[in-house]
Specification:
The complex is a heterotrimer of chains A (about 325), B (about 400) and C (about 575).
Chain A lengths: L1 H27 L5 H6 L5 H10 L6 H14 L1 E5 L2 E5 L14 H36 L4 H15 L2 H15 L15 H35 L2 H8 L4 H29 L3 H7 L4 H10 L3 H29 L7
Antiparallel strand pairs in A: 1-2
Chain B lengths: L32 H9 L2 H18 L1 H8 L11 E2 L5 E2 L2 H4 L16 H36 L2 H16 L2 H11 L6 H12 L2 H16 L1 H8 L4 H37 L11 H11 L4 H29 L1 H6 L73
Antiparallel strand pairs in B: 1-2
Chain C lengths: L33 E10 L8 E11 L4 E5 L6 H8 L9 E8 L2 E2 L5 H7 L4 E4 L13 H12 L4 H14 L5 H4 L9 H13 L5 E5 L7 H18 L2 E6 L2 H7 L2 E6 L2 E7 H6 L4 H9 L25 E12 L2 E13 L4 E6 L5 H8 L7 E6 L2 E2 L5 H8 L2 E4 L13 H12 L4 H14 L16 H14 L4 E5 L7 H18 L2 E6 L2 H7 L2 E6 L2 E7 H6 L4 H9 L5 H13 L8
Parallel strand pairs in C: 3-8, 3-9, 6-7, 7-8, 13-18, 13-19, 16-17, 17-18
Antiparallel strand pairs in C: 1-2, 1-4, 4-5, 9-10, 11-12, 11-14, 14-15, 19-20
Helix pairs in contact in C: 3-4, 3-6, 4-6, 6-7, 7-19, 10-16, 13-14, 13-15, 14-15, 15-16
């Protein structure tokens, strides 16, 4: 088990290394002068040169990447002639626009993203799995037909359409809620929840369609298996057969997929955050892309990479724990 | 040896005896394209979704004609049609619907909405189809190479595929669009970005299918008959790969439409003045109180398109593999045909079977196990279930 | 379902309570345990075709404590009958007519509740595939306990104790500990024991066993059949055995009912029916069953063609093959040496996991040997590259086990057979088609079905097509890997006859791999017995079957079911005296 974990984490580190190389190469080899970008349009040539020196842009690409990597592991110093700018251990550089440390920037934005993802996950587990089960059990009825159409429609609907319609309906017409604006949990838990209600609903409903399909599929698959017949043939009631045996088969994939989705969302539910103006990691990404703030873009992509890779490891572990037949090699 | 008189023709097996396997010939049900067509046509959902999509394609193709018919073009501003005092809300009912502007005008600019929606359809369909083609081509090539190559090739390619699947494609796509020079044609860029980032699912399915097929006896028989590697691939493998690839492409297409719309919504996709549904919806965020039509029209079109594609994809999947669909109760409901008794088949796998607490047979791991990045817990090189369609592993979601 | 015309009778609802065995109900004492009257089961197929009648007006009774076998080939409807006894067709869309009474309950008219009380407590079922019949997620003991608690008011703890008790009873060693194991941690034989334990849990009066040993090796099969016999003697429960294997029936039951196409062909006491069948179909069926005690039909010595006497076609020396399983290495074939002479048949027999299939595939070089030598007509081909192999490829052919996977479902059968001809490139199109038609005709198929697809053929016909394809390459040696094990017994006999005929005609050498000792005996000149990747014994058929030297061979032979019930009983008691060293399989 420990051995497996070490192996997986080693593999994950390898993946991240490859990703960092690819991302670094892509973003620093693109046309355009990074020093000019970092400094801004109103910089003089001299100032640009200063920035170039501070960022070490004169060095070879490989050396620059080495520095970058060293910064991530051990932190690094940027020296501008006299002044030395220190950047702490997981150093992803400084934002071109705000001169803030990228790591710090992302950490500041993480709670909003986490809030959004957690609430959404609760919703998709309840609504999605519930709907899936219901439609698996009410096979042949009108309930199933309706649910099938609903989930099919839900699978395809882009999340921002769902969000926009909810906004229109709930905030503009019914006026049940004011237009949401993010309030940190630490400031006011109640306001935090009220303001996140709509984003949660949007993301949760959107993901629910996928989970409903998954749950329905695995439940039906299990119901068709031979061991279900065994328990029916032994007089076990239909409800017990479904609850104990059919449902059990649906659990591992749902758990594993949830872990994966949660991980991906930690990298920012870009569309939802952007639509509701939630200052999370995803919003940061899209803002920095608009401003061509390359260090932040690189940083976010790498952080997302870490989240996803870890989520994969967790998903596999959970899957193996839920389905004991899977041996961790 | 007791030599019974050699039976001829149908007498080879006792009449009426239905040998096991007859009912379960792998993919036999999907053999004829004509049969698939017939099954598709017999499903009302398939027919109407195809009709909707057909209409959409015709409208998109005929956009210039229809624009001429209406007497409008997508780029002309009509300041007179918007109420500048109220910030640019279209004048008139339902967002300025009139004989000249059939679906009203865009708030703020007064551009004709009908024509812009049609041109938006062109962009959406073009990008989605283009990206799907790129995904399928890369996916099939990589998957085939992994499935047919030696151990090293396979492990490198599969690991690469795993990474591609695991990476959050929307984030990467956003990031990539940031670094490409502004002069690069955006639709082409979108095709490339979506296509190059999202081929992993196809590749994985093709590889799994190839590995499964490779194990089947008819491939061994072809080798014994003197067929070389490429002859085997072309004659024995490719025809059987068509069904899962088509099925998967049918899932990819609507998902690519959504990705394009999402990127445009975020302002990193198609750039103005080229019209695009996602981009309209992005602008509409500001207008939805004053001009709901401006939200509802592009949203409705996008929804209908994606929904129709999804329904059609589902129907295609059912038509190509009715057995799997029947098992999942997708097609007909509640009924299950007679199950022929399983036949006596002593387990004689090519490799010694492992008893007790080892990994389960590959096919007992649900096909829906999410993509592991590396060294998966599920038995990695094991072939998946024969001709199993991608049940619920939808392609990369532009999550959130 | 249920247009069952039910004669109102004092319906004594079986108490869903009896802790071990419900007391025999006085009201039903006179009634047989099972009474099936005019049972008809129809399945509606899709797309509006006529319903398939799986069982057609079948009637029979089974008295308490007696054992009846339903014997038939695939498609005879025998398993459908078994399911009908427990009302398992309810809710599946199948149409059931006639009456079925089990233990005093009218299965068709019973409420769901009554039916549940019947299932497991009065009549319990053992299924064919023990792995898929148990829930992979729960411990075996828990699953048995769950069933027990459904029918009794037992506490969780008492139910667990009962589970351990029955597991112990069916011969699971260290039952208390093993009860915590999940099904995949059991071997095939143990799983079937566990299923039987589940059946025993509530002390049913009737055990329905649907092909209970079909998925098992012959030695394990013998143990399971012995166990069933023992349990029956001990508890006095009735047995309804569904099987395709007449030998299994002969070992286990008092009466036999032969079914075909959903109808009864013949029924009677087992000795009478097997000894003196009245119906033609029964006679054909029995004649087709390969037997280890029938007189040998092939000459005691192979009759090599004069000019090739002593010549060796294929020689394997110390052949080994390893597979990597994660970090472990598994040796599938462990130093096998053998020779095949022109025109002879070498039988290779072994249980699952013995490495016989791996060996077969190495002989035709579909698999590369890890080490050892393989000489074909004097040329070393064990390590030859694909290119060096080319001249020999076509001379070494194979016929595969599974007729469903050995033909490409997307290519017409003619094209499949033509493949070797096209690959060779020696013939033009017209000649290829003509040759394929000849071959199809030669193996007993209509050449006009050239353009048909595999799913339009029956299993036996597909196997013929596979043989035609092998012949197209004009081989000298064909390795047949379980060529008949997926076929019904009458089809089996026809296919082996065809192979023998072709062999005589074309002077082919055959390597005949099978798990069925009787089939191998019937078709082979010489036999090699494999176990754990090694050949434990090799010799002529007369030697190996007549005077087996190796204890494993002896055990194998002792386990083969025989058709004579008296003989079977004698063998059973002989087996009982053997040390129970294999009990844990």
């Amino acid at each position: 088990m420990t051995r497996y974990l070490l192996k997986r984490l080693g593999g994950a580190a390898g993946v991240l290394l490859v990703l960092s190389v690819a991302v670094y190469a892509l973003f620093y080899l693109v046309p355009g002068d990074p020093a000019r970008l970092a400094c801004g349009d109103r910089c003089s040539t001299q100032q640009v040169e200063q920035v170039r020196e501070r960022l070490g842009l004169e060095d070879s690409v490989v050396a620059q990447y080495g520095e970058f990597l060293r910064g991530v592991v051990a932190g690094r110093d940027y020296s501008t002639g006299t002044a030395v700018l220190h950047c702490d251990a997981p150093c992803l550089g400084f934002s071109y626009k705000t001169d803030q440390q990228v790591t710090q920037l992302i950490l500041e934005r993480a709670p909003a993203t986490l809030s959004l993802a957690l609430g959404a996950m609760v919703l998709w587990l309840v609504i999605g799995v519930g709907t899936g089960l219901l439609s698996a059990l009410r096979r042949g009825g009108i309930t199933e037909r309706a649910l099938t159409v609903l989930t099919l429609a839900g699978t395809g609907t882009p999340v921002f359409i769902l969000g926009l319609l909810l906004l229109m309906l709930v905030c503009a017409y019914l006026r049940w809620l004011p237009f949401p604006s993010y309030v940190p949990f630490t400031d006011d838990p109640e306001q935090w929840a009220w303001n996140l209600l709509l984003p949660w609903l949007t993301l949760g409903l959107y993901e629910s369609a996928k989970y409903a399909r998954l749950t329905r599929g695995s439940t039906l698959e299990t119901l068709a298996e031979d061991h279900i017949r065994t328990f029916r043939a032994y007089g076990v009631g239909e409800r017990a057969v479904v609850a104990r045996h059919a449902l059990r088969g649906a659990v591992p994939p749902v758990i594993a997929l949830s872990a994966l989705d949660f991980g991906t969302m930690m990298g920012g539910a870009v569309l939802t955050e952007s639509l509701f103006g939630i200052p999370g990691v995803g919003k940061t990404l899209i803002d920095s892309v608009r401003q061509v703030d390359l260090p932040v873009v690189v940083g976010v992509v790498l952080v997302v990479g870490v989240a996803v890779v870890l989520a994969n490891v967790v998903a596999d572990l959970l899957y193996a724990a839920a389905d004991r037949r899977v041996a961790l090699l | 040896m007791t030599t019974t008189p050699e039976p001829r023709l149908a007498a080879a097996s006792p009449p009426g005896s239905v040998p096991a396997g007859d009912a379960a010939a792998p993919a036999a049900a999907a053999s004829g394209a004509r049969q698939v067509w017939r099954r598709l046509r017999s499903r009302p959902s398939a027919v109407w979704s195809a009709a909707v999509l057909g209409l959409l394609v015709v409208l998109a193709l005929a956009a210039p004609l229809l624009a001429a018919l209406e007497g409008q073009d997508p780029d002309t501003y009509h300041d007179a049609l918007v109420d500048s005092a109220r910030g640019g809300v279209p004048i008139g009912p339902l967002g300025g619907v009139s004989g000249d502007h059939w679906l009203g005008v865009e708030p703020g600019t007064g551009r004709d909405l009908f024509v812009r929606l049609l041109y938006g359809a062109r962009v959406s369909l073009l990008v989605a189809v283009g990206a799907t083609v790129v995904q399928v081509v890369i996916g099939v090539l990589v998957g085939l190479a992994a499935g047919l190559g030696n151990r090293l090739v396979d492990s490198v390619l599969s690991r690469f595929t795993d990474v591609m699947i695991a990476l959050p494609m929307l984030v990467l796509a956003i990031a990539l669009t940031a670094v490409v020079p502004a002069g690069f044609p955006r639709p082409v860029l979108l095709v490339l970005v979506i296509g190059l980032l999202n081929w992993g699912g196809t590749s994985r399915i093709v590889r799994a299918q190839t590995l499964t097929l490779k194990q089947l006896d008819f491939v061994a028989a072809a080798r014994l008959g003197g067929s070389g590697r490429w002859r085997v691939a072309r004659r024995e493998l490719l025809p059987s790969l068509a069904a899962p690839v088509i099925t998967y492409a049918a899932i990819l297409l609507p998902s690519n439409i959504v990705i394009e719309a999402s990127l445009s919504f975020l302002g990193v996709g198609v750039k103005p003045p080229t019209p695009s549904w996602g981009q309209m919806l992005s602008t509409a965020q500001v207008w939805f109180r004053a001009d709901p039509m401006y939200v509802l029209l592009p949203a409705g079109l996008l929804f209908v398109t994606v929904f129709a594609f999804t329904v059609l994809g589902d129907a295609v999947r059912t038509a190509l593999d009715p057995r799997a669909a029947g098992r999942l109760g997708v097609g007909r409901r509640g009924k299950r045909g007679p199950r022929g008794p399983r036949k006596a088949v002593a387990a004689t796998g090519a490799a010694p079977e492992t008893t007790s607490a080892t990994a389960p047979a590959p096919d007992s791991t649900p096909g829906s196990v999410p993509a592991p990045v590396s060294g998966s817990a599920a038995p990695p090189p094991g072939p998946g279930p024969a001709s199993a369609p991608p049940h619920h592993d939808a392609p990369e979601d532009p999550a959130s | 379902m249920t247009e069952l015309n039910d004669a109102p009778e004092p319906n004594d609802p079986t108490e869903p309570g009896g802790p071990t065995r419900p007391p025999t109900n006085p009201g039903t004492a006179a009634e047989p345990l099972v009474r099936v009257t005019d049972l008809t089961v129809e399945f509606t197929t899709d797309e509006g075709t006529a319903p398939v009648r799986a069982v057609d007006r079948l009637s029979f009774t089974l008295a308490a404590g007696r054992a009846l076998a339903l014997v038939g080939e695939s498609g005879s409807g025998k398993s459908t009958v078994a399911s009908a006894l427990l009302g398992l067709h309810r809710g599946t869309g199948a149409r059931v007519g006639g009456t079925v009474r089990v233990g005093g309950t009218d299965v068709g008219a019973a409420t769901d509740r009554e039916l549940r009380a019947l299932r497991g407590a009065v009549a319990a079922m053992v299924f064919q595939d023990p792995l898929s019949s148990l829930d992979p997620y729960y411990a075996v003991g828990d699953q048995i306990a769950e069933v027990y608690r459904v029918h009794t008011a037992a506490t969780r703890r008492a139910a667990r104790a009962r589970a351990v008790e029955v597991l112990d009873r069916v011969g699971i060693p260290d039952a208390a500990r093993r009860a915590h194991a999940r099904p995949h941690e059991f071997s095939g034989g143990m799983r079937q024991r566990a299923l039987i334990a589940m059946a025993l849990a509530c002390g049913p009066r009737l055990l329905i066993a649907d092909e209970p040993t079909t998925a098992l090796d012959v030695t394990v099969q013998a143990q399971i059949l012995d166990l069933l016999h023992e349990l029956r003697q001990e508890t006095g429960m009735g047995l309804l055995l569904v099987t395709h294997d007449v030998g299994v029936a002969a070992e286990s039951v008092d009466d036999v009912l032969v079914m075909r196409e959903g109808r009864e062909v013949e029924r009677g006491p087992v000795a009478d029916l097997l000894g003196a069948p009245r119906e033609t179909y029964t006679r054909t069926l029995l004649a087709a069953v390969p037997r280890v005690d029938a007189p040998l039909t092939r000459g005691p010595e192979p009759a090599p063609e004069p000019e090739s006497a002593g010549e060796v076609l294929l020689e394997a020396v110390d052949l080994r093959r390893e597979f990597r399983r994660g970090r472990r290495t598994v040796t599938a074939v462990d130093g096998v040496s053998l020779t095949v002479r022109p025109g002879e048949t070498l039988g290779v027999v072994g249980e699952s996991g013995s490495g016989k299939t791996t060996l077969g595939r190495m002989l035709v070089r579909l698999l590369d040997p890890t080490s050892g030598r393989l000489r074909y007509r004097g040329t070393e081909i064990g390590a030859a590259s694909e290119k060096e192999l080319r001249p020999f490829r076509r001379e070494l052919q194979m016929v595969f086990q599974d007729p469903a996977s050995s033909l490409n479902p997307r290519r017409s059968v003619g094209e499949s057979v033509a493949d070797p001809l096209r690959a060779a490139g020696a013939l033009d199109e017209t000649r290829i088609v003509r040759r394929v038609r000849e071959l199809l005709e030669r193996v007993g198929l209509d050449p006009d079905r050239y353009d048909r697809y595999p799913h339009e053929f029956s299993g036996g016909q597909r196997q013929r097509i596979g043989i035609a394809r092998a012949l197209a390459a004009e081989p000298r040696l064909i390795v047949c890997d379980e060529p008949v094990s997926a076929l019904d017994v009458t089809t089996q006999a026809q296919v082996t006859a065809l192979l023998a005929e072709l062999q005589r005609e074309l002077g082919l050498a055959l390597v005949f791999i099978a798990h069925d000792l009787a089939v191998v005996r019937q078709v082979s000149d010489r036999v090699a017995v494999m176990r754990g990747g090694r050949i434990v014994e090799q010799g002529t058929v007369a030697q190996v079957y007549g005077a087996p030297a190796d204890p494993y061979t002896r055990r194998l032979l002792a386990a083969v079911p025989v058709l004579d019930p008296a003989h079977a009983a004698a063998r059973r008691s002989a087996r009982g005296e053997l040390p129970r060293e294999m009990a844990a399989v």
